[in-house]
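Notes from the 1:1 (GR / supervisor)

We went over the backlog. Supervisor wanted to see one worked example end to end before approving the batch request, so GR pasted a single chain during the call. The sequence is below; no edits were made to it. Supervisor asked that the structure be written out right there so they could see what the output format looks like.
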Amino acid sequence: MSWRHFAEEAIERAHAALPSDVSFNDRKAAIIAAYPFGPRAHHPYKIWLDCQRRYLTKFAQPTLDTKRFPLSPLEKAIARAQRLASE
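Structure output shown during the call:
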């Protein structure tokens, strides 16, 4: 089993325990508290952050708050390319 599999299972268990009408901030706190690995460092933590981001973006408002979700390097490159194409 991979780090990603463990992370996704932990997120799924936390999701199952949440009511459907929970606020985004409470959902985010529950997912953060469900961290299944040891120290928050290195490869397992990076995998966790990726899984957490993928999960939480499903519940975010249509206008993403960049403080909640900083753009990934790929998203930054896409936004820059779109901005340059429109100029």
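Supervisor's comment: The chain has one domain: 3-86.
Batch request approved.
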